[in-house]
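Appendix B: complex inputs.
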Amino acid sequence: MRYLQSIGEYFLMLKGVFGRMTKRTVLKELIFKEIDEIIIGSLGIVAFLSFFIGGVVALQTALNLNNPLIPRTLIAFAARQSIILEFSPTFISIIMAGKVGSFITSSIGSMRVTEQIDALEVMGINALNYLVFPKIIAMLTYPFLIAISMFLGVMGAYSAAVMGGFVPADVFMQGLQEEFDAYHLFYAFFKTFLFAMILATVPSYHGFYMKGGSLEVGKASTTSFVWTSVVIIVTNYVVTQLLLS
Amino acid sequence: MIEVKNLHKSFGDEHILKGIDFVFDTGKTNLVIGQSGSGKSVLMKCMLGLFTPEKGTIEYDGKAYSDLTDEQKRDLRQEMGMLFQGGALFDSMTVEQNVMFPLRMFTKKKKGELKKRVDEVLERVNLVDSGKKFPAEISGGMQKRVAIARAIVNRPKYLFCDEPNSGLDPHTATVIDNLIHELTVEYDITTVVITHDMNSLLEIGENIAFLKDGVLAWKGDKSQIFKTEDETVTDFVYSSDLFKKVREAQQQGL
Ligand SMILES: Nc1ncnc2c1ncn2[C@@H]1O[C@H](COP(=O)(O)OP(=O)(O)OP(=O)(O)O)[C@@H](O)[C@H]1O
Ligand SMILES: [Mg+2]
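Resulting structure:
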């Protein structure tokens, strides 16, 4: 029952977000600020994770590939598939639920606790639009972050496989291009877009409607991380079922 | 002038405001006092339009809030300034940006003109040197003054203050009280102040509403509140030893 109510509240929130708009010039500034904080601010960690996980995927495949009947091109092929299909869109989004999600929840939540949201509303500003809309727009650039993650993941795989001496460069490149299906890219970016919207709105919901004091801000961030991850994982399953099978 | 008529507000089964009638005068500091939980903040939030009362009306200079269109409500909001208990400054913005915020949101003026008005108001609250600082970098009393500056920058007709001097030392509290009072007279604002502070009562209690359990238990001004024999009021006002002694002294004609 409680969950149904929350889901209803969540969709009412979305309606509020797209309600009365904040002044354009102000909105533009806010959007750039969010892009800087959410996307640019995550470049480092995303690049680091992508490169090394890409490397480890290639390394594992190479180390486990003992059967001489299986071609060495599989190393690059497997790395490419797992990076593009799951690692970059889904795994990175879960990391982002922790990094960006809890940042969003705690920043909106502390504004709620310290009456800053009331202050906005008293001034006649649509606080939901002011706070959440710029995050949604900023998250439209999230697919670029994921594209960078994919590229660096493959770079990591290349480094581990080729420089690690498991496979010659030309064999790796050949495996990388094997059975390439553009539809997989569409699938990956389609779900990335959905995850972006989840990352912008679910943590905002948890921050905006939180009750209590500063102690609860911490709790709300944790709850927000759990729910954002759950929603991402479930969405991932449903989208995969619908688009790939 | 804000006229509250027969105002009722409940949360679930809890009946918080049980028919409040009161007139808040223009150009005066109107005080709302009463015990914790008596519904003072709820009353203020109803007046700000943050809560919708179940029954009764609130009239702003003769215009009933419930009769206004959404557009008019928004316009009315822009004529209101609010000083929150904790200041509610936007902590991601500097002092200057905080004060400029309502202007930026609602006026079409150039940056230069806005800056001029901000400087003017910051000067009024004695904070010219702190414009570039962030709220976390200034003291509680200064934060309150910034919040006052932000509340008045758009020249409101109605100013609401929820416990403006809670958490401040007696001297700073008096400074804040006097500032609110001066601005009220200067700009001819209808000011509503919630307070627990007996000093404020003495300083700026020009029109006092005493709430008890969601009803208006007493009204009057500062000269009357120390003379009244009404027990609900005296129990509240003379709950501190200091004021008991003041009262005894008065009764002995000292
Ligand atoms: N949003 C709300 N939802 C439910 N109940 C509320 C809400 N706001 C206030 N109340 C209840 O209304 C009653 C009066 O609260 P209010 O905040 O007006 O007290 P107050 O007189 O301002 O007290 P204080 O001096 O401590 O600030 C309290 O019992 C409170 O629990
Ligand atoms: Mg209160």
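Chain B is about 40% helix and 25% strand.
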